[in-house]
Amino acid sequence: MYPKIELHVHLEGTVRAATLLEIARRNDYALPADTVERLASLYEYRDFEHFIQVWILTTNALQTAVDFRQVVVDYAAEAAAHGAVYIEGIFSPAERVARGVDWDEIFSGYCDGAREAEELHGVTVRLTPDIYRGASDEAAESVVRHSSAYRERGVVGVGLGGLEAQFPPEPYAPAFELAKAEGLGSVPHAGEVVGPESIRGALHALQADRIRHGIRAVEDPDLLAELAERQIVLDVSPVSNVRTGAVASLVEHPLPKLVEAGVLCSISTDDPAMFDTDLTRDYEAARSLGVDPRAAFEAGLAGALCDEATRDRLRELGNSFDWAKVPEPELV
Fold first, then answer.
1. How many Cα atoms are found within 13 Å in the side-chain-facing hemisphere of 104?
2. Could you give the CA distance from residue 297 to residue 93 in angstroms, rounded to a whole number?
3. What single string gives the DSSP state of each residue in 203-222?
4. What is the pLDDT of residues 211-253, one digit of tens each?
5. Is residue 43 within 8 Å of residue 54, measured between CB atoms?
6. SS3 127
7. What is the pLDDT of residues 125-150, one digit of tens each?
8. Sign of dihedral through CA atoms 173, 47, 250, 77?
9. Closest to 35 measured CA to CA, from 23, 17, 53
10. What is the maximal distance between C-alpha atoms in the chain?
11. Other beta carbons less than 10 A from residue 7's beta carbon
């Protein structure tokens, strides 16, 4: 097992079926399926929009600080078993607030979980809350202001997620300008189901430090060159892209073209419980496409929003590991 950095994982989408059922019962929340098997069948997506619908239905089961803390600790345990040493976890607070959950209950729960995850499992967890596409200006600003208030507890950036085709990035520029002014990183989703114009909007209007997905950049040579020149890291999730239909199959994934163009690509699971994947499977999928494990680690290190002491520790970990002993990938 080799060390891995994961920069793109939605914590709500890490909850395995049995745990999700347990949390739903605890909160008296009616899921659209009541067994592990039926939940599995629910996770067969027609397209990206259908995935978002299922994501909202299932993740609304999470309602208390206890739930949010548990989600982080449980995923840290799972990811550590796959070699994770650093994670940037995403959560969508405004989704929960719209359903009656208090801002501070959400943030404190996730931050408590991040602290406990490192204590119990040795995985450094930092947090990057998402503004959901379609959120009001007020909700977007509230995400940023609460993120800033929890900077000392591990919140390092703000993202933008959800229905990319319906909501371009530019209207969210004021929220991300505020995030930058508060010392937070900008890590929006872009270029997953919409083309290069979405990525350009994220780079220029949202001052993106990193792009989550970004795979449609292959359609624009000038954009590829810009990403490579500026060393903008793309957080690529190969299994997710196949499961949502963003790409037709793994062999058709644009990851090799991105790497060939000199673009730095980190590897992540996105929503592992909802895509029937894990960190090893996604890294092995990337390896089957020609991505070297150390290159993926180095890209993750380059894109991480962590403090310099953490970056130095991760760099030393990567430099001291014997990458030559990593076995050949299992996937072909």
1. 1
2. 29
3. HHTS--SEEEE-GGGGG-HH
4. 999 999 999 999 999 999 999 999 999 999 999 999 999 999 9
5. yes
6. strand
7. 999 999 999 999 999 999 999 999 99
8. positive
9. 17
10. 52
11. 29
Token output for 123: 């995985």
**C-alpha–C-alpha distance, residues 193 and 164, integer Å:** 7
Distances (CA, A) of 89 to 106, 111, 137, 305: 14, 11, 23, 11
- Tell me the C-alpha distance between 177 and 130, whole Å: 15
Residue 6: active-site member? no
Which amino acid is residue 167, in one-letter code?
F
Beta bridge partners of residue 219, listed in sequence order: none
Scanning the structure block, which residue is given the tokens 């359609």?
219
Residue with more model confidence, 30 or 173: 173
% residues pLDDT > 70 (the chain): 99
- On whether the CB atoms of residues 138 and 167 are closer than 8 A, the answer is no
How far is Cα 127 from Cα 89, in angstroms, rounded to an integer? Answer: 5
CA angle in degrees (0–180, nearest 5) for 133-200-94: 15
Angle, in degrees to the nearest 10, between helices 65-81 and 17-26 = 170
Non-local (6+) Cβ contacts of 226 within 8 A are 203, 232
Q: What is the pLDDT of residue 332?
A: 41
For residues 318-328, average pLDDT: 91
Segments in 150-292 forming alpha helices (H): 173-181, 196-204, 221-230, 238-243, 255-260, 272-275, 279-288
What's the rounded mean pLDDT across residues 56-61?
86
Q: Sheet harboring 265-267: ordered strands across? A: 189-190, 210-213, 233-236, 265-267
Question: pLDDT digit string (tens) for 161-171?
Answer: 999 999 999 99
pTM of the model: 0.94
| Structure token digits, residue 252 | 């058709």
Residue 329: pLDDT band (50, 70, 90) is low
Of the residues 6, 192, 284, 298, only one is catalytic, namely 192
Which of 294, 292, 303, 244 shows the shortest CA–CA distance to 269?
A: 244
